[in-house]
UniProtKB/TrEMBL annotation:
This is DUF1349 domain-containing protein. InterPro entries: ConA-like_dom_sf, DUF1349. Residues 1-26 are annotated as: Disordered. PANTHER family: REGULATION OF ENOLASE PROTEIN 1 (PTHR35332).
Amino acid sequence: MLTGWAGARQDRFVPPTDEGLAPASDAPRLLGAPEGDFQLIARVTVGFAGAFDAGVLYIHVGERAWAKLCLENSPDVPTVCTVVTRGHSDDANSFTVDGSSVWLRISRTGRAFAFHASKDGERWTFVRLFTLADEKETGAALVGFMTQSPMGEGCVVTYDHIAFRPDWPADLRDGS
C-alpha cells in the first residue's frame, strides 16, 4: 500500500485557454522508469475534500509531454477522467464512480499508452488510447503515482493492490 498527500492547491496542468491561468507542476509524484511493454494497476481511494481533488496514475515523457488517469472530484462527483498534455493539457471526463475508490490501469506498448478503469479490478472499461513521444524519440517514460488538490486545502490518496505486469492487454476493448 502507498499513501500520497497533496498540499493546498497542488496540481499538474497546462491550461489550453487564455484565461490567465499559469501552468501548475507542483503536485507530488512517485515515479519509476519501466522498460518495454507494461501495465501498472492500482486501486485508488481518494479522501475527497475539494473540487478536483484526485488520485492519479501518471506518465511523464517531458516537461510538456505527460498524461494523467484520475479518480477526481469533478467538481462534486467522483469521476474517472484523463488529461493528456502535448504542450497544453486537454481534459476529458469518462464516467462517474459511486464512492471514493476505483481501479486504474496504465498500459504501454512501444509509443502507445492505454488507460482503463474498473469498479472491481476484474472487468476493465477502455478509457483512452494515445501517444506522447514523436517518432524520433525513444518513447522512454517515467510512470507512477500522483496526488492533486488544485482548488482545495489538501488531499490524501491511498493506492493498494498495486501490480506491475510486463505485457500489453490482449484486447483493449473486451473488458480483460
